[in-house]
Structure formats: C-alpha cells, structure tokens
Amino acid sequence: MKYQNRLLALCLSVLALGTACSSETETKTENEQAKETAKNDEPSEPADESLQKIKLPDGFKIDYFAKNIENARSMAMSPSGVLFVGTRSSDKVFAIVDKDKDGKADETIVVASGLKAPNGVALKDGDLYVAEISRIIKFPDIEQNMRNKPKYEVVYDKYPSDEHHGWKYIAFGPDGKLYVPVGAPCNVCKEENQVYSTITRLNADGTGMEIFAEGVRNTVGFTWHPQTKELWFTDNGRDMLGDNTPPDELNRATKKGQHFGFPYCHAGEIADPEFGKDRKCDEFVKPVQKLGPHVASLGLKFYTGDMFPEQYKNQILIAEHGSWNRSEPLGYRLMQVTLDEKGNAASYKPFAEGWLQNGKAWGRPVDVLVMPDGAILVSDDTNNAIYRISYSNT
C-alpha cells in the first residue's frame, strides 16, 4: 500500500509538472528553456540500460567513452588522442584521456573553470583555443599544462556580449584561420552591427578578424569537405512560426561573402513575415538540405575514417540536439545526409536515434568527432556523456 501511495503521488507530480511546463513555454526564452531542459531531462533508467534503446544500422554498436562529463558540448582531439570538451551551461573545460587506447576514458581533468559558457574548443600547434561568449582565449602548450590549472591568454575580446545565441562553436579551417560564429541576439531581428548573424574568421593570433558569411541565424556546428575544402554548416531556424516552419538548414559556403538569408528568408524559400518584404529569397544562397523543423541541428562531420562501410565515406553525420518549444518534440538523434557525385544532398535519414522516448528526452546529442581508429564520438550535454559508435561486420 505504501508503494502504491508513493507511485500515485509521483504520477500526480509528473502530471502537474507537465502542465506547468506547457503553460510557461510561451514566456520563456530559448536560453531559459535550454537550462531547464538540461536539468530536467535526466535518464529514467540506469545509463547502460538506456543505451540499449539507441537504434543503429546493422553492424554498429554504441558504448560509453566517458561518463559524468557535466554538460558535455563541443569536442576537439589532439594528435596524441586527448579529447578536449567545452560546456555551455557549465563554466568548465575538460580534458579526457584514454591511456590504454581501449575506447574508454581513464581520466577526466578539469582544465579550466570559472569561464562564461566556454562552448567552443579548438586545437592548433599544441595550444587549446576556447570560445566564451564575447572572447577567444588560448591555453598554450595545453597537454603539458592541463593538470596544473593552466593560465590562459586573451586572443580576441571584441565579440558581442549578448547571451542569446552567444555561445560559440569554433574550429580552424584549411586556411589556418579560426572560424567563429556570431548568432543573432534575438529570435528574428535586423541589427545595425553587421557582425551579428555571421560566421567570422581571424588569424590564430587574434588579428585580421573579418566576416566570412552573412545571414546565418545561429550555427553551432561547421566543418570542411575533405576534398573540396568548402565550409559546411548547420543553421537553426527561427521560432514562433508554428511547429513545422521553418526547417533547420544544412548549408555550404563556396566562397567568402555569401549571404544565407536571415532575417529576410528562411530555408531558401520562406519569406519572413516581418523582414521578407525587404529582400527576395532568390537573392540568397539556398540550403543544400532542409533539416527537420526546430530540431536544433548542431555539430556535424564528414565521415573520413576507415572503420565504417564504404558507403559512409565522406558522407555527413549531424547531431540534432532536439526541439525546445515544439508541441511534439523532434530531433534528439544523429542524422545522415548522403551526397551524390556532384555534392548535392541525395538523402536525409536517421543514423542513431532513441534518446527521445515517449515524448521525453533522456539525452541530447551535441557534437560529432571522427576518431583516428574510425569510430565516432558523440557528446551529450543532458546525459553528461561522450558516446563511442563503432562498426564490426563480424
């Protein structure tokens, strides 16, 4: 009887919480909702059992590479195999070491703390670059100093301080420059400061900052094609146009100076109700692939390893973090975009899914990284984990 009473009380609490969430979503910002989601979407079952829910193509297997990595977000791996992980709602940057190279972490080190949304991490010449909201900092010779509370140098500190879409993904391009996005400080708006809604780039020493691409609402993931060296990036569509409009975007930037539509046009063809009258959709670069609506597409990588079957070579894997205000949740999965011989998108389909169960998310994929052995790593800022997905035909 005591068990039944406790169960009844728990059910009533869950129903009350669901009602409260549905009535409050309209007034909460994306930042506020994201913070609550990170706290509330805890696994309802033991973590190892929950991984059994992840559906993968035949021959693929998912395991934990690392657990208890608070708010694990963007990833970068050093040539020696040390994994560096940024955070968004936390203030930390982690280093994760697999000493015996068995595909499971043996040591987790807090490299730095007290930072402001240090989401982005990148490596160059042995130095760790970290993106906070308004600045880029650098930890020199990081692997020699990561256990000793290393000091950082400020590389560039003139980015806007807006927290709305202020967290950043960063990466060094084939040109040796550091690419840094600046999201729109709003759901949809047109700002006088032209650095908003762009992807910028700068030299490793912080000089030469310039705008590379415009009309980008909020990208939190980009990469370069292994053969053409062109920049590919995800972009999160605006909110408050309904559950199914607009879709997120997968874009390709073939040169500097291209405009991808925001705030005038969404997904290449949807004129914005407020700003669409100012410019036409055919003025802008259209997406290579329309992604799911409000799925929060984040990190992506071309698969360049040799472990997976040949049909995955140079194809795209995208982490969809999951919708924050859609009436029926969508995303919370890894998607595959297959390209044809001309580089056009031929298909968009699930690769790994199951972090969403019965409308409740127990995990939210953030970033993707291809390991030297050909397996991939996937970060999860809600289950506080790094997963390793491998393949075997035996």
Could you please describe the fold and organization of this structure?
This protein has 394 residues and is mostly beta strands. The protein has a single domain (46-254, 291-391), classed as TolB, C-terminal domain (Neuraminidase), CATH 2.120.10.30. Helices cover 11% and strands 36% of the residues. The chain is built from 4 helices and 29 strands. The protein has helices at 2-24, 30-40, 47-50, 142-145; strands at 60-67, 72-77, 83-87, 93-97, 107-112, 120-124, 127-131, 136-139, 153-156, 171-172, 178-182, 198-202, 210-214, 222-224, 231-235, 247-253, 258-259, 265-266, 270-271, 289-293, 297-302, 316-320, 333-339, 345-353, 356-357, 360-361, 365-370, 376-380, 385-391. Strands 10-11-12-13-17 form a 5-stranded mixed beta sheet, with no helix packed on it. The protein has a 4-stranded antiparallel beta sheet with strand order 1-29-28-27, with no helix packed on it. Strands 2-3-4-5 form a 4-stranded antiparallel beta sheet, with no helix packed on it. A hairpin with a 2-residue loop joins strand 25 (356-357) and strand 26 (360-361). The longest helix is centred in the N-terminal third of the chain and has 23 residues, at 2-24. The termini are far apart. 42% of the residues are buried.
Features:
394 residues, mainly beta, Neuraminidase, 5-stranded mixed sheet, 4-stranded antiparallel sheet, 4 helices, 29 strands, 11% helix, disordered N terminus
